[in-house]
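anyone else get weird line breaks when pasting these?? whatever heres mine. first is seq + tokens for prot A
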Amino acid sequence: QAQLVESGGGLVQAGGSLRLSCAASGGIFSFNAMGWYRQAPGTQRELVARFTNIGSTDYAGSVKGRFTISRDSARSTVFLQMNSLKPEDTGVYYCRREPTGWDRVDYWGQGTQVTVSS
């Protein structure tokens, strides 16, 4: 079954760390089309970090230097290491597999809640 499943969210104090994981199944993992997005209540979903189709990484300005995206292709998994968390990082974090040249479907996970207390 083609799906993305996130894990690792939770409640953490400001300044703490969390590591999110996204496991892709059904053969949909793509080396350069995986990313993380987040949505806070009352706001639009926004990019947090992603791998680009030219092999680089792209980060939202608000998380640069604090968050790191990585991947394990053998496990079809992408990670988001989040350090120095702030209350404004609170939201639902979603994993995404962008449409690719060989599969035009835009896959999203169900999301995992991250709450940072002050």
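and prot B, same format (seq, then tokens)
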Amino acid sequence: QVQLVESGGGLVQAGGSLRLSCAASGIIYSINTMGWDRQAPGKQRELVAAITSDTGGGRTMYADSVKDRFTISRDNAKNTVYLQMNSLKPEDTGVYYCKLTNRGADHYWGQGTQVTVSS
């Protein structure tokens, strides 16, 4: 099993910045992907950003809506993933869920952290 603990959400004005963190523990394989999904009110959960482990190639991927504003990074030694969110917009409001995928097959999510961007 995998446990994910998120931190860093909150309320910010449009144009501001927030940094989310997520620490993973448990059975984590060397080939894994960590990232963030979000769910806005009344909308389906969507991928925001993800990053593979070094063993998995260290690749990053972003939703088109956050490219050039958000940056995902990870500390493999600490099994921690970060999401630096800049130039935040009201449409970025939602619950952000940390996600870990082991070997492309087993998915785990954290409890979620609320991000609210006021206009």
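btw re prot B: The radius of gyration is 14 Å. DSSP finds no helices and eleven strands in the chain.
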